[in-house]
Amino acid sequence: MFDISVFGRYTYLVTELVWGIVAALLLRRANAVRKAAVTILALYPIAYVWDRYTLAVGVFDIKLRTGIDVAGIPLEEHLFMAVVPGLVIGMHETIFGDGADGVAVTDP
Predict the structure, then answer these.
(1) What's the rounded Cα separation, in Å, for the pair 88 and 14?
(2) What is the pLDDT along the chain (108 residues), one digit of tens a residue?
(3) Which of 38, 54, 69, 98 is placed for a possible disulfide with 59 were both Cys, Cβ 3.0 to 4.6 Å?
(4) Strand ranges (DSSP E) for 1-108?
C-alpha cells in the first residue's frame, strides 16, 4: 500500500486536494455544481462550529498538516468541510440525478 505520509506536513492538504478534484469531476459530470455549492454553504457554519469544538477538546490530533490555521481551525479542515459534502452530492447525483442542476423532476 502506498504511504502518503511521504508528503510530510502537506499530507492532509494533498489528500483534500485529490479528493476535492474527484468531487469536482463528479459534480461537473452530474451537472450538480450549483446544488452542491448551496448545500455546502448551508452546512458550513454547522461544520465549522462542530470542527472547532472537536479540535478544542482533543478529538482529533492532526499531525500531517501544514500548520496554517484559518479562523481557529486548520486550513485543511476548511477544505474537508467542502470536499465531503461535495463527494456525497456528486456521487448521489451521478447515481440518481437527472442532470438538471437543481431543477426538480416531477412525475407525469
Answers:
(1) 19
(2) 778 788 999 999 999 999 999 999 999 999 999 999 999 999 999 999 999 999 999 898 888 999 999 999 999 999 999 999 999 999 999 999 875 555 554 454
(3) 54
(4) 69-70, 73-74
Contact 63, 4 (CB under 8 A): no
Cα atoms in the Cβ-side hemisphere of radius 13 Å centred on 43:
19
* Distance separating alpha carbons of residues 91 and 101, to the nearest angstrom: 14
DSSP category for residue 70? E
Question: CA-CA distance, 7 to 103, in Å (whole number)?
Answer: 41
**pTM assigned to the model:** 0.83
Other beta carbons less than 10 A from residue 97's beta carbon: 19
Cell for 31? Answer: 451537472
Amino acid at 107: D
Measured between alpha carbons, how far is 76 from 66 in angstroms, rounded to an integer?
8
Cα-based distances in Å from 59 to 15, 50, 55, 56, 71: 20, 11, 6, 8, 18
